[in-house]
Amino acid sequence: MQITYLWIFLAVIALLLDLWVINSVWRSDNASGSKAGWTALVLLLPFVGAAIWGVSGPRGVAKAPSSAEHSKG
């Protein structure tokens, strides 16, 4: 019974990690084809794909559009 909870916990962690990495991939400045490739890698190999993205993925995310109109506090 305890082993079942362990597998459920690991599956939830893998799902959350994948969602975080996929969000990071699609917010990056890479081309769409590159984003699709990273997404496929992360979905096919959850922990390994996330580790590879963490090591070799881009370090920044796309900047949000900004203007004087949107920057009013």
Please write out the topology:
Layout: H1 2-27, H2 32-44, H3 46-56
Could you please describe the fold and organization of this structure?
- The chain is built from three helices and no strands.
- It has one domain.
- It has helices at residues 2-27, 32-44, 46-56.
- The protein starts with a helix and ends in a 17-residue tail after the last helix.
- It is 68% helix and 0% strand.
- The longest helix is centred in the first third of the chain and has 26 residues, at 2-27.
- With 73 residues, the chain is mainly alpha-helical.
- The chain crosses the membrane at residues 6-26, 38-56.
- This is Phospholipase_D-nuclease N-terminal.
- Keywords: Membrane, Transmembrane, Transmembrane helix.
Summarize the structure.
The protein is an all-alpha fold and 73 residues long.
- Number of alpha- plus pi-helical segments: 3
The tally of beta strands, per DSSP, is: 0
Taken as a percent bin, the fraction of beta residues is under 5%
- What sort of overall outline do the alpha carbons produce when their principal axes are compared? elongated
Oligomeric nature of the chains: single chain
Distance between the termini: 53 Å
Total tally of structural domains = 1
How many strands, what sense, and barrel or not for the largest sheet? none
Run of helices and strands: HHH
Instruction: Give unreliable regions as ranges.
Output: none
Rg for CA atoms: 16 Å
Average pLDDT: 82
* Structural class by secondary-structure content: mainly alpha
Question: Percent of residues in helical segments?
Answer: 55-70%
